Amino acid sequence: MNRRAFVTVLGAVLAAPLGAEAQQAAKVWRVGYAGLDRRNVNVEAFEHGLRGLGYVIGQNIVVDYRFSEGHVERLPGLIDDLLRAGIDVLFAANPHAIRAAKRATTAVPIVGIDLETDPVGAGWVKTLGRPGGNLTGFFLDIPELSAKEVQLLVEAMPRLQRVAILWDAELSASQFKATESAAHSVKLKPQSLTFRQPEEFATAFGAARDQQAEALIVLSSPSVFIHLKHLADLALKYRLAAISVFPQFAHAGALMGYGPNLPDLFRRAARYVDQIVKGARPADLPIQRPVAFDLAINLKTAKALGLTIPPSLLLRADHVIE
C-alpha cells in the first residue's frame, strides 16, 4: 500500500468513531419533572444529582418542569403536556403524579418517588426486584416506621397517654393502621384525625384539643410536606408535641421529625434517570427503599411546650435545633 492510500484508510478509520462520539455528544436528553410545589430542597437535590453525573442542565440535558402548586387535580393535564413535548423520561415526584403518569403512558419510562404506596399492591409493578413495566423508582411503604415515631414520642414524654394521628384519607390508611396498632401496644389512646384538603387542618387540630390529646403524629402525605410550616405552627398553637415522617418538620418548628432523607432519595432518582437515558429499561431496574434516615429534634419547641428531652434521645439525633 502506497503512502497516499495508507493515509486515506487511516483517516477513514479514525473519523468513524469520532463521528459517532460527536453524534452522541449532540444528543440533548429531555426529562419531564411532575411535582406539586415549585422550588424546594428536593428539586435542588435532583438537579445536584444530575450535575454529579456529568450533566449540564440546559446543554446536554433539559429538565422540563410542571408543578401543580398543590392542586392534585392539575397533574394529569400537566403530565399530558410533558408527554406531548417529547420527553425521554418522566420523573414523577409524588404518588399523585405517579398515578397520573401510569394512566397516561405505558411507553415513556417513569421514575417515581412515593412514600405512601405499595407499588405491587397498587398494581403498578409486578415485583420489587423486576418491576416489569415502564415504572421504577423509590418507595418507602414501611408502615412500621410509625412504631418508631410512637417510641420517640414516649421517650420524650414518658407520661404520655393520649396521642392524635393526622392522616391523609386518600393515601395513608395503611400507615394509620400501623400507627394505631403501635400506639395501642404501649397503652396509648389514639385519636384518628383525617383530612382530604389542607383547609381541614385547623379543624383537625381543634378536634385534637377537644379530645385532650397531648401529642400528635402527622403521617406522610405530599400535602403534609408542602404545609410543614403551617402544621408546625398549628401544633405549637394547640400545644401539641408533634412528630412527622419528614425530618424537616422539626426545622419548621415542630418538636421532632424522623424519616427518610428526602434529598438523598431525589439525588438517587437522578441516577436512575441517567441509567435509563443510557439504555436501561425501567422493567429491569429494581424498586429501591430509602437507606438514610434522620432524626431531628427542636429544643426551642420542647422548651415552649415545657418538655425536657432526655440526653439519651438527644445523643441519637442527627439534627438538634436550638
Largest sheet at a glance? 7 strands, mixed
Summarize the helix and strand pattern as letters: HEHEHEHEEHEHEHEHHEHEHEHHE
Fourth CATH level, the homologous superfamily of the largest domain: Response regulator
Quick one: how many beta strands? Answer: 12
Q: Residue share in helices? A: 40-55%
Strand content: 15-25%
**How many individual helices?**
13
**Which structural class fits the helix and strand makeup?**
alpha/beta
Give the second-level CATH assignment, the architecture of the largest domain: 3-Layer(aba) Sandwich
Annotated CATH topology of the largest domain: Rossmann fold
Instruction: Output the CATH class name of the largest domain.
Output: Alpha Beta
Q: Order the strands across the largest sheet as they lie in space.
A: 7-6-8-9-10-11-12
Distance N to C terminus: 80 Å
Q: What is the count of structural domains?
A: 2
- How would you state the average pLDDT, rounded? 91
Radius of gyration: 24 Å
Uncertain segments are 1-24
Q: Can you walk through the features of this model?
A:
It is a single chain. The chain is an alpha/beta fold and 322 residues long. It folds into 2 domains: 28-140 and 262-284, Response regulator (Rossmann fold, 3-Layer(aba) Sandwich); 145-260 and 293-321, 3-Layer(aba) Sandwich (Rossmann fold). It contains 13 helices and 12 strands. The protein has a 7-stranded mixed beta sheet, sandwiched between helices. A 5-stranded parallel beta sheet has the order 2-1-3-4-5, with helices on both faces. α4 (95-104) links the parallel β3 (89-92) and β4. The longest helix is centred in the first third of the chain and has 24 residues, at 3-26. Residues 1-24 have low confidence and may be disordered.
